[in-house]
Write a structure and sequence with these properties.
The chain is of the alpha+beta class and about 325 residues long. The protein folds into 2 domains: about 90 residues, 2-Layer Sandwich (Phosphorylase Kinase, domain 1), CATH 3.30.200; about 200 residues, HIT family, subunit A. Helix content is about 30%, strand content about 25%. The protein is built from 8 helices and 14 strands. Strands 8-9-10-12-11-13 form a 6-stranded antiparallel beta sheet. A hairpin with a 4-residue loop joins strand 1 and strand 2. Helix 6 packs antiparallel against helix 7. About 20% of the residues are buried. This is Scavenger mRNA decapping enzyme. It holds the Pfam family DcpS_C.
């Protein structure tokens, strides 16, 4: 896949990978297919994530693949079924790893990518109003969204914007970006992010009954833009969802291929289907100002997350919450 990064920047960041000095393993997940490493680059902390890339599907490669396997060892056999371990041939032409580098990283990055226990919590309307909403506002005021606003306003990462709504009506502007975990070529693992331009909706909690038509319209525009970008896809091969809790508090929608393996980011306790949100808003009792802030939401948290350490653990232990 051709890089969309300016050549001088691409050359610089590519030069950082060989400089990575391993410190310790943070996490092994996705059945051992992804590994997160903590290290340093020029004495500054860095996180390197390595994930097995998708298999090439071109005919020449597939034709020669079985014969090129080495160190084949049988693990078992039963009737017509046999299973083995083996090594794929080295190839400089076909990358077999996808890498993500966070440099320099923060203590929060290290917590996020470290192995940690998970907890299920239930966020009631009262907990949201008293603790979670002020927590969100605190993060926004700390400048955690400056990078999002830079993209929306065209100051940074414009080479990664694959679609921007042309001449949008008020409150209908959005842009599409490839998710960092997509290799930008394998359609069955397509993962895009739809960033809305309006800034009054921080998360799904801000959606009210009066937003139903807006959400429906955004869904239609996101689907239309995606199939226009990738004509080999059809609308019913895509699913849309939002995260709660999200990674950052500016409303964004995930667009993924239905065949994308549903890991923890699509699991119950993290992902809310956009169609289900619309249905819940439509059936919610009350007037146009009633909304998702009026319902309880259950989700999982890592034990090293700020929300668990600052809010839910103190509540569980009967201690005062200090934001």
């Amino acid at each position: 896949m051709t890089s969309t990064t300016p050549p001088e920047i691409a050359a610089h960041v590519e030069s950082l990978i060989p400089q990575f000095q391993f410190t310790r393993l943070l996490k092994l997940d996705q059945a051992g297919r992804r590994i997160s490493l903590l290290g340093t680059i020029t004495n500054q902390p860095a996180i390197l994530l390595l994930e097995r890339a998708a298999f090439p599907t071109d005919t020449p490669h597939l034709t020669t693949l079985p014969a090129s396997l080495t160190n084949i060892k049988n693990l078992g056999a039963n009737d017509i079924y046999s299973w083995f371990l083996g090594c794929s041939p080295p190839s400089s032409a076909t990358p077999d790893l996808k890498l993500n580098l966070i440099y320099p990283c923060t203590p929060q990055h290290i917590k996020k990518y470290s192995e940690q226990g998970l907890r299920i919590v239930t966020e009631t309307p009262a907990i949201y109003t008293q603790y979670i909403r002020p927590f969100m506002q605190q993060k926004r005021e700390e400048g955690r969204l400056n990078w999002v606003f830079n993209i929306l306003e065209g100051r940074t990462e414009q080479e990664d914007v694959i679609y921007r709504a042309p001449d949008p009506a008020p409150e209908e502007g959005f842009l599409l970006l490839p998710d960092l975990n997509w290799d930008r070529k394998t359609m069955a693992s397509l993962h895009l992010l739809g960033l809305v331009e309006r800034r009054d909706i921080w998360s799904v909690r801000d959606l009210k009954k009066r937003h139903v038509e807006w959400v429906k319209h955004m869904r239609e525009m996101l689907l239309e833009a995606t199939v226009r970008l990738y004509p080999e896809l059809e609308r019913d091969q895509l699913k849309l969802y939002v995260h709660y809790q999200p990674t950052y508090y500016h409303f964004h929608i995930h667009i993924v291929h239905v065949a994308l393996e549903a890991g923890s980011t699509q699991a119950t306790g993290k992902a809310l289907g956009l169609e289900n949100i619309v249905s819940q808003l439509e059936t919610l009792q009350g007037g146009p100002e009633s909304g998702m802030a009026d319902v309880s939401l259950a989700y999982h948290l890592g034990e090293a997350s700020e929300l668990w350490e600052k809010i839910y653990l103190p509540l569980k232990e009967g201690r005062a919450v200090e934001l």
